[in-house]
Amino acid sequence: MRTASPSPKNSKAGPAGGQARSSPSRSSTTTSSSSSSSAPRPAKPDRVYALPLDQIEPPDVQMRDSIDPQKLRDLADSMRTRGLIQPIRVRSSDNTYTIVAGHRRYLAAQMLGWLTIPAIPLTDAPSADLATSLHENLFRDDLTPLEEAALIAHLTESQQMSLEAAARALNHTMAWAEGRAALLAYPLPLQQAIHAGTVPLAAAAYLAQIHDPDQLTSALDAARTHGMTMRAAMEWARQADLYAQALAAGTPAEAPSHELATSEASMTYCDMCTGHVYINVTKFLRVCFDCLRALNAATPGR
Questions:
Q1: β-strand partners of 91
Q2: Can you give the pTM of this predicted structure?
Q3: Distance, CA of 6 to CA of 204 (rounded, Å)
Q4: Which of 34, 96, 256, 285 has a CA-to-CA distance to 265 between 20 and 30 Å?
Q5: CB 63 within 8 A of CB 133
């Protein structure tokens, strides 16, 4: 990839895409050069430059709370052998550049010890930076549900967007945006469990109904040890509610536990006798309408 530099001294990306080495200054560049502390020259649209890493700053809005170290190492290994295929995108400001898209590629270049990195300085209106960053993160890399929720909060609070407008900007439905926004109202330990992938969203909606912090802690401990299905979480919430009612009435009751929740969650009621039966031994009964009438007549009150 051939790159040019908007700074007075041209630098050129090396074989790996970012190793800097000196090159003779061209006359056209020399005549327009200034000191290294001067502001970057206006860039031509879509022109790729080899920009010094020490003049580049992280993005103003972080789309991710954390970056997987292993994935970052994998990216660095790919860039070491194949170079940087997709330049990062930056916005010039005073004597520095701010990353708009490509933060992980920038971090990988730092990990490799590169002095420069291929970059495209943006020349369109700064208001387009958010859309570029959203495209970079949402449509190419997976965010966790909590990161998506924080992004919605940023759009609705800092950018003064309506929830509907934020949903459109993220290319999702209003129902999806409402669901993600609701996550920020969950207790912090539950949010952390969702972010860590310990509790799936379907189960989290029921665990959020547990108001006793101790009971919620027990449920989250069970989730880390045994996992948590939606049905088990539903039973945890039901048992926690019954336990709270019993305590309020001064009635002895068994506190919710993994064993109690999972055993109850794996049971249902028999349609004939209303007794308990394990789900894995239930049977479906197929009958025609005439037989069904006869069955109903033979079992009055059921």
A1: 98
A2: 0.54
A3: 50
A4: 285
A5: yes
Q: Which top CATH class is 11-124?
A: alpha beta
Residues of the chain with pLDDT under 70: 1-46, 60-66, 124-142, 260-287, 298-302
Helix (H, G, I), strand (E, B) or coil at 49: strand
**Gap between the Cα atoms of 289 and 226, Å rounded:** 44
Give residue for tokens 């200034």.
34
What would the two tokens of residue 16 be? 């790996």
Q: What residues are paired with 4 via a beta bridge?
A: 49
Which class for 165: exposed (0-12), middle (13-18), buried (19 or more C-beta within 10 A)?
A: middle
By DSSP bridging, strand 20-22 and strand 11-13 are antiparallel
What's residue 200's pLDDT? 92
What is the pLDDT, as a whole number, of residue 226?
A: 87
The predicted pLDDT at position 140 comes to 52
Phi, psi dihedral angles at 213 (to 5 degrees) = -60, -35
Domain regions of the chain by residue span: 11-124, 199-265, 269-302
DSSP type of residue 24: P
Q: Is the dihedral of CA 132, 133, 134, 140 positive or negative?
A: positive
pLDDT tens digits along 103-123: 889 999 999 999 999 998 887
Tell which residue, 90, 103, 190, has the closest CA to residue 146: 190
